[in-house]
Write a structure and sequence with these properties.
Blueprint lengths: L7 E2 L1 E9 L4 H14 L4 E6 L8 E9 L12 E4 L5 H6 L6 E5 L12 E5 L1 H6 L8 H4 L1 H12 L3 H11 L4 H21 L1 H5 L3 E2 L10 E4 H11 L4 E4 L6 H14 L10 E4 L3 H13 L4 E5 L1 H6 L1 H10 L3 E7 L16 H5 L9 E3 L4 H18 L2 E7 H5 L1 E4 L17 H7 L45 H21 L4 E3 L6 E6 L2 H14 L4 E6 L1 E2 L3 H8 L3 E6 L5 H9 L7 E5 L8 H11 L1
Parallel strand pairs: 1-8, 2-5, 5-6, 6-7, 10-11, 10-12, 12-13, 13-15, 14-15, 18-19, 18-21, 21-22
Antiparallel strand pairs: 2-4, 3-4, 9-16, 14-20, 17-19
Helix pairs in contact: 1-5, 1-6, 5-7, 6-7, 9-10, 9-15, 11-13, 19-22
């Protein structure tokens, strides 16, 4: 049977159930990259425990020629390599599914409506060239080879993927590929019937030509580098650590001075409070400074966030969100920090928040955040999440910044000589943004002190009510200016639609797939993808133009829905919520069903 005549060609999902710390990530990413190299759109979602080793972990690979990348509602192929979870994993396998499992292990599938294929794991590993102490890691390569035979992954693609993983080192790649090849050949010989009438198959395409596989944290780090970052202060926290790691890996290659010395600084602080304090100090000194964290770290940064807002110091904070409150679920994904980031700090603080919806925007907002921070002289938050940040996604190539760096209203010595005067918080342009100077400016007028206490427009300490009000009113004007400068929403209007879907961040992929399902069911919808706070006129027009607007988000309380109701209170009754948080990315099936119930 030709692969193109098989009903499930290039449209299915695989769940790999293993043990954390067993080397399964190498195996799973080899599968993912091999399928990508066959020209087939694919992405993977890793569900891992918040410990180092020994607990269950799952990896879901979704193959979709149509380009869908949301978490699948079900996966018809199960690789059951963890006996502790095997019964529950098998129960989730749909009728007609396939299960690969070790024949020499303690577990056997007991369901008449699925097909099981036992694999001689110990035998194949014992016959390999691996040292005995490493054979535990080699075991996962057995399911790689068997799966390759079952669904038609080209072995040479797997070899290339392993070379990529081991950074071109032929010896470890060859050792692993030897097990893959042996398992491939064993499966072909043992189960000819599976290959004679396959139910799930890959057929090479050219849909990934010119595209890349990348995770959001790496894309964000590269974007920050191309945006001129020169200072990072950070404290380790899941799932933001890999963003700092990527900066540490790429900055030595991309940011050295003419003398060959580093033109950047990376400091691992003693805690998140110190990390933001260092970054704010570096931003005051003129560096393009940033930190990266997740929800618990964001909470600790509150006081310095208020200082940066009130003293008007540019700085960037990447918040790769996880499930809270408190420690919550450190290795699960959510969109629960929106409200916190938008208003972090006591008193009347309002922050600029960017909301990348894909890895290409993680790169773009990585550099654009610095332009906005310096143009607005304020703290800018970028809210990603674990799903977007730590998983591999198929993406268009990253686009180099389209403009020179925007440093905002920075006065040079020549500017000060020409002006003859410097009033730090004057607002001659009416945009709420005063001019600033940087340390090192030699002009006598350049010196200025940034403070978190009350001050007048000349930055002189003041407790006069009129000075306080004037300052806060000007900060409000700056926030209005930000509405025009932040990335504007993406609007996809359907002329037949009376229902609008609104989303942001990583919900983009699931909403797109849900829209296709709803249209097939006779319910066309429009789509507004928000990309920043503060919200603007585009959001108000979209809400006004639809009978019902349903905000889809990955938190319990509908935080963006609430911000939209505040933004356009005259249309508050039109705004409904599909808000759900259980630690997992949403599925299109769940969203489509929830929308239908609301309309």
């Amino acid at each position: 049977m030709s692969p193109t005549n098989i009903p499930n060609t290039n449209e299915f999902a695989i769940t790999v159930a293993t043990v954390n710390g067993s080397g399964s990530q190498t195996a799973n990413q080899a599968i993912l990259r091999a399928i990508f190299r066959m020209g087939i759109p694919v992405n993977g979602k890793n569900l891992f425990p918040s410990n180092i080793q020994g607990e269950p972990t799952w990896f879901t690979i979704r193959v979709s020629a149509r380009g869908y990348s949301a978490r699948p509602a079900e996966a018809p192929i199960l690789i059951a390599f963890n006996p502790r979870t095997a019964e529950a994993d098998l129960a989730a396998l749909p009728p007609g599914g396939i299960c690969l499992y070790p024949e020499d292990g303690p577990w056997r599938p007991r369901r008449d409506d699925v097909t099981g294929y036992p694999l001689p794991v110990k035998e194949l590993v014992a016959a390999s060239s691996f040292e005995p102490r490493l054979r535990e890691y080699a075991a996962n390569m057995v399911y790689v080879g068997a799966l390759a035979a079952l669904i038609g992954i080209e072995p040479e693609r797997l070899h290339g993927a392993l070379l990529h993983h081991f950074r071109g080192k032929a010896q470890p790649a060859g050792l692993n590929f030897g097990v893959v090849q042996a398992a491939y050949e064993q499966f072909v010989a043992a189960y000819p019937q599976a290959l004679a009438a396959p139910r799930f198959r890959l057929a090479p395409l050219r849909a990934t030509e010119g595209k890349i596989l990348i995770d959001g944290n790496t894309a964000a780090a590269l974007g920050a580098i191309f945006g001129g970052v020169s200072f990072l202060a950070w404290y380790p926290i899941t799932p933001a650590t890999s963003l700092a790691d990527a900066l540490g890996a790429y900055l030595p290659r991309l940011r050295t001075g003419p003398d060959g010395h580093p033109a950047y600084a990376i400091v691992q602080a003693e805690d998140e409070i110190a990390a933001l304090g260092m970054a704010v100090g570096a931003g005051w000194a003129g560096a393009r400074a940033m930190t990266c964290t997740s929800g618990p770290g964001l909470s600790l940064m509150t006081e310095f966030a208020g200082l940066a807002y009130f003293a008007e110091i540019p700085c960037v904070v990447w918040d790769v969100q996880r499930v809270g409150p408190s420690t919550g679920l450190p290795t699960r994904t959510a969109q629960g920090d929106l409200r916190a980031a938008a208003f972090l700090g006591h008193g009347d603080a309002r922050h600029v928040v960017l909301l990348p919806g894909n890895v290409a925007e993680c790169f773009e907002f990585g550099w654009r955040a610095f332009d906005l921070a310096e143009r607005l002289q304020t703290l800018v938050f970028v809210l990603s999440d674990l799903d977007l940040g730590m998983n591999l996604w198929t993406s268009e190539p990253l686009v180099y910044p389209d403009a020179p760096m925007d440093r905002g209203k920075v006065l040079s010595a020549a500017d000060l000589e020409r002006l003859g005067n410097f009033v730090r918080f004057a607002d001659p342009d009416g945009d709420g943004i005063g001019a600033r100077t940087l340390p090192g400016n030699p002009h006598p007028l350049a010196a200025t002190l940034s403070r978190g206490t009350g001050h007048n427009e000349r930055n002189v300490y003041s407790e006069r009510p009129e000075d306080w009000k004037a300052n806060m009113d000007r900060l409000s004007r700056k926030y209005e200016t930000a509405r025009r400068l932040v990335p504007q929403p993406v609007v996809e209007d359907d002329p037949e639609a009376t229902v609008g879907l609104i989303g942001y961040g990583s919900t983009e992929a699931v909403i797109r797939e849900a829209r296709d399902m709803l249209r097939a069911q006779g319910l066309p919808t429009s789509f507004l993808r928000l990309r920043a706070v503060p919200l603007g006129e585009a959001a108000r027009r979209f809400v006004a133009g639809h009978r019902r607007c349903i905000v889809v988000e990955l938190n319990r309380d509908g935080q963006m829905r609430d911000l939209l109701r505040v933004h356009c209170p005259e249309h508050a009754a039109r705004l409904l919520s599909v808000a759900h948080s259980d630690g997992l990315p949403l599925t299109a099936e769940f969203v489509a069903e929830a929308v239908r119930k609301l309309v």
